[in-house]
Amino acid sequence: MRGTGVDDLRRLGVLSLGFWRQRWLRDALRGQDWRVVPGWQDCDAIGVWGRGGVAARGIAMAQRRGLPLLTIEDSFLRSVHPGLGPAAGLILDPGGVHYDATSDSRVAAILNAGPVPDGDTADALDLTRHHRLSKYNHWPDLPCSDLAQGTGLPDRFVLVVDQVAGDAALSGAGRADFAQMLAIARARNPETPVLVRPHPSGRGLLTPAPALPVALNPWDIWSRVTEVHVHSSQLGLEAILAGHRPVVHGRPIYAGWGLSEDLTPSAGRTAQLDMAQLFAGLMRDASIWPDPVSGRDRGLLRAVEDLAAVVEAHRRTNGRSRLRNVSAWKRARVARMLGRTGAPVTVGWGPDPTADARIEDGFIRSRGLGAALVPPVSLIHDRRGIHFDPTRPSDLEAYIAASPDLPAAALRRAARLRQRLVAGGIGKYNLSGPLPALPQGRRILIAGQVPGDASVRCGGPNVTDADVIAMAREAEPDAVLLYKPHPDIVAGLRSGAPAEGADMVVGQVSLPALLHQVEGLWTNTSLAGFEALLRGVPVTCLGLPFYAGWGLTDDRADISVSRRTARPDLDMLTHAALIDYPIYLDPQTLRRCGPERVVSWLEAGGMEPSVPLAGPGRMLSRLLRYATRT
Question: CB within 8 A of 393, min separation 6: which ones?
């Protein structure tokens, strides 16, 4: 940006009320040096959205006043639901609009120049494919292997993509053109079933026709499709990204570059591109990706990471959540983080075997303690079991088992996240406190826990903090044992007393800072062991927490889990535990987000206050603190 003051911004005149109703859109334009003003005022350009009805008035005004025209459109990755909430990306085109092949679109010029992909763009493409991202992403999570069950979907078929009558991207094409497209697809494939992918609105040009189920992510069917026919739908672009060469009957922006079979030539498109160049041109060079808070361009890779986190959370929690065993003071926060549409789903706090899913605080929880009524910014959501109960499978266990198969781009993302956590001293509670002077020698940290906590009952039964201290003393008689009781006990928010037998007790200090001062950590099942692993500290476990049993820890438990046969590295474990498993909420926008956004908030000193309960509520507050098991 040239500056942050109003006088530093160019004035963009608009006629559509949509610009005034959507604060995020004005913020995004401000991030590109534009201040939105009414179109009849003094301005530097006229802004229009696409080529809809109101846009025609704006175009006429720009011509009448001799002003430049700026066309604004959604980019090719937008959101979960069509038209709802802020767009992940925008295209700002001063020359035309990308879906009008007769206009002087800036997007076409970018592609003609031959974009040069870079590493971040390659990672963004890999993550788009890995997370099966589309422009809209409200489809239920239905793996391809399950598609044929009850749907009658053929193993192999030809796909014809329908569109809505009057769509500006059709350039005047109508029912006759789409009927011809369907006839051509059938004539080219007489022995293969031809199915229509209906438009999600239900107002397509090919209705009725043999059709796929509407609620179906296109990425779930690409492996079954033998040929793709499109007019100008974005599904043609997604088919290219999935490795297909679509038959294109119109002149969309992704046609004419050598990646499609074009039945209608597009004049002026001379460059021959590969998939990575097309993706780089459309997604990196022609699009902006507004930050939800500042409006500034956050870049393609960060936007893909953010959208992937939101989409994956939606797929896992799709349904109206009926909360059970959730403390009253945090019900509103928990409800916001979980599903609000779809069939009712019972969600229980902790190890509730009768619930459809179980929730708990995430592993980057807050700045402050849950027992002190500080609301969480992350939750784990588990449809199989729960991470601290090794006696039954859990979603986290499945994520860890599958993590060796993650693409390299996903592991690079996990490595970046882990590096930020280490550099920023970020952990679960992010408590501050100066480190005391520590004894010299080989220091071993004993991570204490709350007696009777669910993770102790399930993953490390009959083991106390005193047991951990005693076994560490026996194993390392010459080491200096530092004992850190659980912060809830130190703060007086949970019952219990620190164990004896260590050389030094350290209280309410930063765990990440303390981990940099020790040569090893011993624990029963504490999450502190996971935080130590992230920082390269050797960990010995007497119980079986989620991070044990994978070859990363010294396991002394009497129990083992035969399911834990994978051998992930730290980045794989990080991805499973901090990217795949939790659901995050941006404390600034109160919308779902990825872990990187929460980390940025913590890095900037973000802090949420405890839920206020004053006067007569003080007794209720005390009761809630002791009733809370988080």
Answer: 384, 385, 563
φ/ψ (deg, to 5) at 524: -85, -75
Residues 6+ apart with CB under 8 A from 595: 309, 364, 378, 417, 578, 579, 582, 584
Mean pLDDT split into 10-residue runs, the chain, 630 residues:
66 95 96 96 96 90 96 96 92 95 94 97 98 90 50 87 90 92 97 91 78 84 96 97 98 97 92 98 98 95 97 89 91 88 87 92 91 91 95 96 98 98 94 89 95 87 92 97 86 73 90 96 97 98 96 90 95 98 96 96 92 53 43
Query: What CA–CA distance (Å, rounded) separates 162 from 231?
Result: 8
Instruction: Write out the two tokens for 83.
Output: 């038209």
Maximum distance among all Cα pairs of the chain, rounded to whole angstroms = 87
> Backbone phi, then psi, for 624, in 5-degree steps?
-65, -40
Q: Calculate the alpha carbon distances from 593 to 88, 137, 291, 303, 411 in Å.
A: 12, 15, 11, 10, 19
Question: From its phi and psi, is residue 608 left (phi > 0), alpha (psi between -120 and 50) or beta?
Answer: beta
Closest CA to 290 of 299, 282, 281: 299
Q: Hey, what are 589's tokens? A: 């926008």
Question: CA nearest 26: which of 81, 72, 80?
Answer: 72
Of 447, 408, 451, 402, nearest in space to 428 by CA: 447
Instruction: Kindly give, in sequence order, each residue whose CB lies less than 8 Å from that of residue 416, ignoring residues fewer than 6 positions away.
Output: none
CB neighbours of residue 312 within 10 Å: 21
Sheet of 247-248: strands edge to edge? 194-197, 157-161, 225-230, 247-248, 261-262
Instruction: Give the total residue count for the chain.
Output: 630
Q: Which residue has the tokens 């209720």?
A: 620
505 CB neighbour count, 10 Å cutoff: 17
Please classify residue 593 by burial: count the beta carbons closer than 10 Å to its beta carbon, then call 0-12 exposed, 13-18 middle and 19+ buried.
buried
* Joined tokens for residue 532: 């130590």
Render the burial of 403-427: b for 16+ CB within 10 Å, e for the rest: beebeebbbbbbebbbebbbeebbb
DSSP H or E run through 248: strand 247-248
Based on its alpha-carbon atoms, the radius of gyration of the chain, rounded to whole angstroms, reads 28
Closest CA to 139 of 260, 226, 238: 238
DSSP 7: G
How many angstroms separate the CA atoms of 43 and 63, rounded? Answer: 14
Q: What angle do CA 607, 613, 616 make, to 5 degrees?
A: 165
Alpha-helical (H) ranges within 476-606 are 487-490, 511-515, 528-534, 570-574, 595-603
Distance (Å, rounded) from C-alpha 9 to C-alpha 1?
A: 9
